[in-house]
Structures are given as C-alpha cells and as structure tokens.
Amino acid sequence: MPVIQHGPRDKKWVALTFDADLTALMRKRLQHGKVKSYYNEALITKLRQQHVPATLFLTGMWMEQYPDRVRELAADPLFELGTHTYDHKGFTKHCYTLGTVDRKDMLSDVRKAVTMLDQLDSHATRWFRFPGGCYDGTALHELAPAGVTAVGLDVPGADGFAKSPKPIVNQVLTHCQNGSIVVLHMHGGDNAPYTDEAITPIIAGLRAKGFRFVTVTQLMNG
After folding, report:
1. What is the pTM of this model?
2. What does the pLDDT look like over 13-31, one tens digit per residue?
3. At what angle do helices 67-74 and 106-120 cross, to 10 degrees?
C-alpha cells in the first residue's frame, strides 16, 4: 500500500486537509445532546468564502450521520473527498486512546468506508488517512488490496482539543514548506473547537508567504 507524506518540494504549493472523525463515543454524545454537531459548518463556509480548495477525509460513521452534507461537499468543486476508516479505530496498538482494529478486520473496515463514499460521491478519490496517523507494515500489507493510497502529513495542525486558535495558527505557519500536507479537523464540537477560528489567519499567513492552496490530487500531479 503506497503512502505519501508530502508533495514535491519545488513549488510553493500546500494542501490543506481536514479529517471528519466520528467514533461510537462521539455518536453517543450527539444522541444525548452533549454536543450539538460534529460538522463545523463555519469552517467550510470560510474555506468557500476565501476560495480555498481542500481534501476532506471522512469516516464511515460521519457519512452515516451527515449523508446530505457529504453530497453537498462532493458537489462543490473546491473539495475532494477521501476516506478515514469506518469508525476511527487505530490500525496499531496503543494509537492514542482510539482502540485497535483486529488484523482480520482491517481490509473490510476500509472497504466499507470506500463503498459508502462511492455511494454519496460519484467522483470520490482513493485517498485514505489512518486514524491518528498510526500504521505499521502489517497494516500496509493488509490494506494493499483496498486500492487506496495513504495520505500522511508533514504538518500536524494540533487543533485536536486545542484551548485557543493561536497555537494552531502558529503551528501551521511555522512548519509549512513547499509541498506540505497539513492535517486539521472539520468535525468541530468538543474535539476540535477552534479550527474555524484558526483557519482565516492560517490562510492569510500562508498567502502572505506566497503559498498556493491545492488539493492533494493537484499537489501530487504538480
């Protein structure tokens, strides 16, 4: 299974990517009214207003929860959609607190998410992101038949459970270089509450440095 961590370093291009996580625990919080939504609409609105393309990685559970949003995002030429497993479990042991997918279930988990996305997006990509960025040789071997390419990152946005937007902005602006792939989150809620507030200064700061925003597909084709 191929893995990419960044694009070519010869152009001032950067790919902003956003993960839409949803786990069984997060879904319970939605059902019990502890969280209003795990769709950060303000973030997507700001990307649209500033004409910034992005690659969005969706878990199967998120697609189940928000199928109309998936169709809407798929229809927007600014965005391309990839997958992020079905329920955001880790593909190695001790991947933060995500739990672990059994080896025998790895391929079916990823294929389930791919099938779901194909039903909602007629031009879905075969980009894929491991939850928590956790993988090893076993995971790469087991997922090879899925026909997906893993997209890693070289700039973690650090927006998960952030306490304010400032450290997110500083993290991205400090570490971006030519060909960088930045990972942030689009589910908002209690897990990534400041991404939408951070995105405008991130966009302004990177543009001031001369970066052009592209999707992962454009980055790798460039």
Report:
1. 0.98
2. 999 999 999 999 999 999 9
3. 70
Please provide the DSSP assignment of the chain as one string: --EES---SSS-EEEEEEEE---HHHHHHHHTTSSS-S--HHHHHHHHHTT--EEEEE-HHHHHH-HHHHHHHHT-TTEEEEE--SS--BSSTTSTTS-B--GGGHHHHHHHHHHHHHHH-TT---EE--GGG---HHHHHHHGGG--EEE--SEE---TT-SSSHHHHHHHHHH--TTEEEEEES--TTTSTTHHHHHHHHHHHHHHTT-EEE-HHHHHH-
Q: Measure Cα distances from 114 to 57, 60, 79, 168 in Å.
A: 11, 8, 17, 30
Flag whether pLDDT at 84 surpasses 90: yes
pLDDT of residue 222: 83
Backbone phi and psi for residue 54, each to the nearest 5 degrees, phi listed first: -155, 160
- Residue 37, pLDDT score: 98
pLDDT band for position 140 (50/70/90)?
very high
Rounded-to-integer distance, Cα 218 and Cα 24, Å = 33
